Amino acid sequence: MLIISTSLSILLLSTWLVPAKRLWEVITAQSLIIAIASMVWFCIQNNTLFLNSYFTIDQISSPLLILTCWLTAPTLLASQSKLSKEPIPRQRAYIFTIITLQATTLLAFLADNMMLFFILFESTMIPTLIIITRWGAQKERMLAGTYLLFYTLFGSMALLTALLFFHETFGTLSISLIKDSMKELHPSACMMAWWAACFTAFLVKMPLYGVHLWLPKAHVEAPIAGSMILAGTLLKLGGYGILRISAIINDSFLNAAAPLIIFSMFGVLLSAALCSRQTDLKSLIAFSSVSHMGLVIAASFLKTDWSIAGSLILMISHGLVSSALFCLANTSYERTHTRTLIILQGSQIILPLSAAWWLMAALLNMALPPSPNFIGEMSILSSLFQWSNLTLIIMGVSILFTTSYSLYMFWSTQREYPPMHIKFMPPIQTREHILLALHVIPALLLTIKPGLLF
């Protein structure tokens, strides 16, 4: 714990102490060193590492911790071109806010006490709101911030009430102690309300289809760093919370989860269909996140070994691939100053290397074998099929829609003839190639050894 806190403290202090000329280079280098050092958490496979009485690392949290550390450096690299033109105090404030958000997320994944997890879970909303409302490019950013605030607060009040009941029932809020002293809870009207309250905040955060309206607005209005962190790590807090709470609630509530599993699968289908109707590139990628997270929700509630492993793999691979797609959308936006798909077409003729990155990201997003998305989805589909044979129909149609919107996204942005106004674009920079490599190469390496995430 001392190593983690020292590294984060040095990174936060460096934001204000490093000379302005070397600000971005030093902070990015420090973030990469922390990301490489975090790889040791892969060694935690079959045991739990207790840092102290409040923070632990186990098989569920370690891949998400590594993902959080790994995405910090790409987030800074993606922001450099736009923010380097602003005054130095604003640059420092921006970097400080991003690192604070990542540090809070990191501590939330480490928390063993549920009340501490709740506090850190809600604390992530403050820097996220600052990033969206302060550095968003359009006037609708205030509306997006309002949506995010009220949707999150709605779920949080229910979760806080459920945690108070947890403490009354078990006498503690330590996840490790509750696992060791499980009590048999029988589904009644009161228990069902408590069970629903436990998961409401996490379902809003994922988000579940139906309470997802804040996500496309937040993605469209946020700067590139906000979109990358939101897709890469913040949505995973919801899945992590569901896995944690599910582990300490007995299987007598599994029948109550059946309507939610069915609804989330229909959400996967509907959000995948909506992707093909989007005209804004960032909105399309945001709706694809809703589709993927619906699968994670369904798998998390099944509580089988394959479904939990599949949901974790899908969360990690989605964090890398979705963040890469937002990076590619940002490279197009910086050159054309638009996110409308019909105006972006034909970019492959001008920027062929960028088109190669687009193709790779689209193939990973559609779960092409043997990508980690494919491994995660197959694990989830096999679990769902064992739960009910009829789920195969819904999931089969959803996969068709996922393939169609991924190819539609690639075709709309890269193929056809380019409009007259984008025939003169600056080439892709080395910084952007490194940025995309930091997303795609780890995803490809995980295809070689997916057992790291099981």
TrEMBL record:
List the keywords (alphabetical): Electron transport, Membrane, Mitochondrion, NAD, Respiratory chain, Translocase, Transmembrane, Transmembrane helix, Transport, Ubiquinone
Mainly localized where? mitochondrion
Q: What is its EC number?
A: 7.1.1.2
- Provide a GO biological process annotation: ATP synthesis coupled electron transport
The record's catalysed reaction(s) read: a ubiquinone + NADH + 5 H(+)(in) = a ubiquinol + NAD(+) + 4 H(+)(out)
Subcellular localization, as worded in the UniProt entry: Mitochondrion membrane
> Which positions fall inside the NADH:ubiquinone oxidoreductase chain 4 N-terminal domain?
1-107
Whether Membrane counts among this entry's keywords is yes
Q: Does the keyword Transport apply?
A: yes
Q: Which family does it belong to?
A: Belongs to the complex I subunit 4 family.
Query: What is the purpose of this protein?
Result: Core subunit of the mitochondrial membrane respiratory chain NADH dehydrogenase (Complex I) which catalyzes electron transfer from NADH through the respiratory chain, using ubiquinone as an electron acceptor. Essential for the catalytic activity and assembly of complex I.
- This chain's protein is named NADH-ubiquinone oxidoreductase chain 4
